[in-house]
Design goal:
- The structure holds 2 protein chains of 2 kinds.
- Chain A is of the alpha+beta class.
- Chain A folds into 5 domains: 68 residues, 2-Layer Sandwich (Phenylalanyl-tRNA Synthetase, Chain B, domain 1); 203 residues, Phenylalanyl-tRNA Synthetase, Chain B, domain 3; 68 residues, Phenylalanyl-tRNA Synthetase, Chain B, domain 1; 220 residues, BirA Bifunctional Protein, domain 2; 88 residues, 2-Layer Sandwich (Alpha-Beta Plaits).
- Chain A is built from 20 helices and 30 strands.
- A 7-stranded mixed β-sheet of chain A has the order 18-21-22-26-25-24-23, sandwiched between helices.
- In chain A, helix 4 packs across helix 5 and helix 10 crosses helix 12.
- The radius of gyration of chain A is 40 Å and the shape is elongated.
- In chain A, 40% of the residues are buried.
- Chain B is an alpha+beta fold.
- Chain B has 2 domains: 86 residues; 227 residues, Bira Bifunctional Protein, Domain 2 (BirA Bifunctional Protein, domain 2).
- Chain B is 41% helix and 19% strand.
- In chain B, strand 6 and strand 7 form a beta hairpin.
- Chain B starts with a helix and ends with a helix.
- Classes of the chains: A alpha+beta, B alpha+beta.
- At the A-B interface, strand 2, helix 7, helix 10, helix 12 and helix 13 of A face strand 1, strand 2, strand 4, strand 5 and helix 8 of B.
Chain lengths: 706, 335
Amino acid sequence: MRVPIEWLKEYIDIEVSAEEIAKVLTNIGHEVEAIERFEDDTVLEVNITPNRPDCLSIFGIARELSAFFRKPLRFPEIYLTEEKADEIDFKIDILDPDLCNRYAGCIVKGVKIEPSPPWMARRLEKCGIRAINNIVDITNYVLLELGHPLHAFDLDTLKGKCIRVGTPQSVTGNQTSLITKTLDGIAREIPSSGLLIWDAEEPIAIAGIMGGLDTEVKDATENIFLESAYFNPLSILRTSKVLGLKTESSYRFEKGTDINMLEKALLRATFLMRRIAGGEVYGKLDVYPKLFAPKTVILRYRRVNSILGLNLSKDYVYDIIERLGFEIHGSDEYFTVTPPSFRVDISREIDLVEEIARIFGYDRIPSELPKAQIGFDDTRERVAIAKNNVKESIRTSCLRKGFNEVINFSFMGSQDLDMLKIAENDERRKLVKILNPLRIEDSYMRTTLIPSLIKNVEYNVAHGNRDLRLFEISKVFINKEKPIEGVPHKDSILPEERTHIAAIFYKEKTKTLYRDDIHEFYLMKGVIEAILENLKIDNHLFVRSSEGFLHPGQSADLFINDIKIGFVGTLAPFVYENLEIRAYRPRIVVFELNLDCIIQFSKKDIIYRQLSKYPYIERDTAIIVDSTLESSVLRDLINQHRSDLIEGFYIFDVYQGDNIPKGKKSIAFNLRYRASDRTLTDEDVDKIHNALITYILEKTGGQIRT
Amino acid sequence: MVEEIKERFFEDLNSAEDLQKLNAIRVKYLGKKGVLTAQLKLLPSLPPSERPLVGKLINEIKVLIEKELSSKEAFLKEAELKKQLLSEYIDITLPGKYTPFGSEHPLNKVLAEIIDIFIRMGFSVEEGPEVELDYYNFEALNIPKEHPARDMQDTFYISDEILLRTHTSPVQIRGMIKRTPPVRFIAPGKVYRCDADISHTPMFHQVEGLMIDENVTFSNLKGVLVTFIHLMFGQDVPVRFRPSFFPFTEPSAEVDMGCILCRCHGCRVCKNSGWLEILGAGMVHPVVLENVGYDTERYNGFAFGMGVERIAMLKYQIDDIRLFFENDIRFLRQF
């Protein structure tokens, strides 16, 4: 809200600078966001929190400052003499007293529509409101001045000398909604529960939100019906939301106006009309079916101190509450406090504690670390620690392997799954749909992290970054097959959230100083192996992948204990067709693992194995086998033949070409033998080794390469 | 005679350029058929009175030659090694062969720092779902349906009852339901609001904090948050608490710290105010405690929340929030 200092000073005498006022307002909870200088004035831009509609006016701000500075508050001049009350032939009828607790009005006759006087137009302008004509401006002026919205009707356009306040349902008895043309010239559909103002025949305004076009004050208007009412905040909020229509007026009504200010605002406006527009004011009408009953609140002053960590005296507390305009009665232990009608935000003891804190000043409250007990739930902490350790271990593995961590939005579109040709019955099609997405491409929560990573590669390649290793650890969201209906506040209707780790590798073929020609698949598989080794998981298995978007010959699914944990592989050629990557035959390798799944397999306890004191003996062997034979066969055969003496096995060469028959390949490997209790002799090793090689050759149909 | 040998030896020694030649000299003088051996063989032919003297002279020269040869040998060996090493020189200014370590995402880096500080203050770390029930996100936090405060947050909805959490505050409720006081935890995580412009992204990160115990005061809230800001941004950063409004805390506070970029003199980032909004906080509203069945007469406490992007932007002087989610490696590698 904009507060011109010159205007503010009409209600309170304060001698301090605009900066000082701004500082005080900020310190008592009304943040001044900007100070704007004018030739003859300074305007403060004040941010009023939604719980304080009483401060949405210049007078309201003055009232706060008056409490803080202990300065008297001046109420503006109002019209008090009632002229010709007996001549009024006008009736107000409230059909929905729950939605309209009070409705007052005045008839002003013989006004002359003119531009407002410069002082008023200028004040309105400084507050960001355009001057229209004296009558409309006066309603706006009083709205800014006292915070109470008013509406002026052209009396002569009203039919039947009456005002009715009611919803379409109460007035017409129909459930249907209704079309009304508002001031802005738009025909609006009013819900059957929306509160309207009617004349004897038809609706003339949407209560508290906007007036109707037909009854607005025009240049030729002579007679006015001026409305000042109290509308139920929730009703205004609902209607305003349904219509998508927010006005200065609706904003104040929906937050709660001061039901007692209503009358003063009306008298203030009639005073101004008489003075500025030369009108003759007729007696006030006031229908008030539901009298405002102030609610008392008990305040234990000890409680104030125990919550704030202060040691304020009883008198001090009393003084603050009284200054704020509350009625307060004291006893030894507690006060009975009645908030004024404008403080719609006060209903509990804690609300008063806040009042004391903000007037005392947050900055004067000492800052002191708590003297706390330790509340420690070891079962929960153990689970949390284990989970965090696994996550951090995986993160560290990726970072060490040179992968840059990314964070993507949790959204995706169905086109992302289509791009990967994810099957209709795939779990990744169990989508969580956002009803109001920002973009259609972001309509769903991610069920896989791969599409985002592919986009990261595209983005980076477009920006000239050619060597990309990226990974992300984020949640994916799998919709539940059948959410249990009608069970509120229950987690069972929420989707399943899983933490995934996914990575992507892409490197453009460039000439490099040092040889680096490893197939990217092995590089990515190596990262997974490092992750698993770091977590001491050794019972995993890579099998040819069933993922349709991966190259069938260069992909694998990872299993631990027969549970699929994830996949690794080169993207299938069809995926590149839709990508903005112009390299010749690009090769992108990805993996994605279910981190929550991995956690249960990570070995928590490490038990040290003794180091053998005895020397080892190594044997290198090369065998020629069918080129289709996979190395895992060799590994399995060695495992089957496992002897305690075999300490290690690794393949150091796979070769096809010269000297090797077509359709065959050579695999060279190293075996290391060692006993834990004695020194092995060459004879011992020869015996075991030869038996093992014979077994391998027999099973693979291979032969020794000589 | 002996002097003559000595002279010739030094001539030869000086002309020896490598170990091979040196060896030839050794053979020439000290070998079985060498000069000195030949001289020794002549000894018996000398008169007995001269023998001891000549023998002594020959021995002396033999010792001298051996000494000179070994020192020359050491010199030549050294020279040869030098020559070999010189031939093995490589261009040490060429870059090393390495794979750089990956970089942590700046948000996770800052998040880790925040979490570390609170863990040191005795807070545990709690998690909650990102797709959340309306009840936990709003109602239990004293924001009933149609509460004006819901306008403050633009919510992504999944259904009437389910939404993307708009803040990490629902974890307060879940955390309290699972525990009995004393309760002390933080809840970091992703949150969502349907808002996208130069300073807003539809997804961002928050850290929520909660402490419930007997005799927890607003003064304690200040103590914890001032300590946090000092650890995060420096001991001399001024901190300001001013009243604000959140439905789930009362009294509520907005916490500002002195602008670290202009040292409170006023700049573009702090909009010339000298202050930067950094945290929202307050004493947990009794309605919230009642909603989780805590005895509000016995227990109270405080809660706070902060935006991780905001803190990272200030810490690294990043001027555009969207950089965090573009994932350009030229950006990522800087952290």
